[in-house]
Structure formats: structure tokens, C-alpha cells
Design goal:
7 strands; single chain
Length: about 290
Amino acid sequence: MPDRITSWHAEPSKPGFVPPPGAVDAHCHVFGPQARFPFSPKAKYLPEDAGPDMLFALRDHLGFSRNVIVQASCHGTDNAATLDAIARSDGKARGVAVVDPAIDEAELHALHDGGMRGIRFNFLKRLVDNAPKDKFLEVSGRLPAGWHVVIYFEADILEELRPFMDAIPVPIVVDHMGRPDVTQGPDGPDMLAFRRLLDSRPDIHFKPTCPDRLDPTGDPWDAFTAAVRPLVEDYPDRCIWGTDWPHPNMQDRIPDDGHLVDMIPRIAPTAELQGKLLVDNPHRLYWAN
């Protein structure tokens, strides 16, 4: 059994930026606690417990009002830990599930009643063994009303995924912008390819998140700022933001969550943009129904 890993900052700083009322951390996770919610036998990493009490304490410390909790790959298709966190949030959390594509309608509607509003398709080979596009398309056509699909992939397979994404019959949210090489700048090939994707249909949203993952120059992540700010400015109604806490697999480069929050005004420099990124857009996706 591999050693359990800690991937989050023990004492994140208090950010200088104060999020607007109603602000949503729209991409975060919970791990376990393992004693109640065992990790998947297929998990590619084995984290220490990072449960809802820790998540909600961080939410309050950073100045956010709500969370969208995305099912972590270490829990596979057993969404019990995420559902438990939503149930304990006093209505302040919604979620994104990972499901077996053969899931039936009753199970999908039970997830809806538990606060889920989307399902996630993961195409990172280091995290999942199998990503069957045909089965993903089939289940995406059976989702409860108002749901969307979240897709996680790396930039080098974007063009390969385009026909699949074109066929998804519900809105799409792209995790971490499809992991572009931000050192290429705002007009680099990865960002231009991503803009072409956004221009291909009006219901594709994105998360301008994870400078700690995407910017090898390190904190304060200037390359990320330069590449991503124009994207937020040009697609203000299509972006949502999150911390990615507890930062799966980042145990060797753990970011300070306060510094991540202080990136927000650098990529969304006006109060209007900040309101769309943190309040309007995530509320429309996760609390409209």
C-alpha cells in the first residue's frame, strides 16, 4: 500500500483580495475521511483525510460563501464522500459526480436530490484507466434537467476530443482550461486552440484555475496571469473559479490558498468581471434548479 500523501497547505495565508458576497469556490474536493468513505481500489494516489470540516473552515478563512465539490478520482464512482459533504454544508455546497456510464435514471435523480448538478469525464491517463467516449455520450443524454458535463483533459488531446465534445448534448465546463502551456502566452498555440473550442458553441464554460499546476515559473505565477487574463476578459460569462483544494497530487509543490485567491483580481481586474467569475456564472450553473 503506498504512503498516504498530504497535498494542502497547513496554514494558508489570509488573502488581500476580499471576494464579493455570494462568491463560490467552484472547484474543490474532499478526501474521505477514509474510515467512513474508503478510497477506490483503482485510486492512483492515496491522500490523507481532507473532509468537509476542513473544507468549510477554508471557505470561511478565504472569504467565500459557497462551494462546488467535484468528486475526486481517488474515490472512483462512489460519490458518498462528496454527497456527505454537500449534506453537511447547510445548503452552501453543490457537487459534480463521477458515475459509471451504466447508471440508471433513479440513481441519477438520487444524485440530483443530493445536490449534484453535473458529471465529470476525466481523460488524464495518469488518473484513470478507461475513458469510453461512446458510453460517456450515452449517459450525457440522460442527465437530469439543468445538469452539465465537466471535462478534464490535457492540451495535447484537445483536437482529438473535439468531435466528442461537439456531440455532448448539454452544456460543458472545461477543468483548468484543458491544461494549456501558459508559458506560450495569450496568443500561443494552446490558448488559440482553446479559444477555437469556446467559439465553437456558446455553452462551453471554463475554469481559469490552477496556476500552481500550469505555471512552472512558480508563485506569483506571472506567466499564468499574462496568458489567462485576456481569456477571462473576452469570455466573461463563461468562466468560473475554484481553489482546487486539497490540490490532488501537488504534495511536492503545495500552493498557498491565500495566494491563489489573490490571483483573482489579476485575471479578473474589475468588480464586474469578479462578480461574473465568482457569483453570477457559478450560481447560474449550480443553483438555478
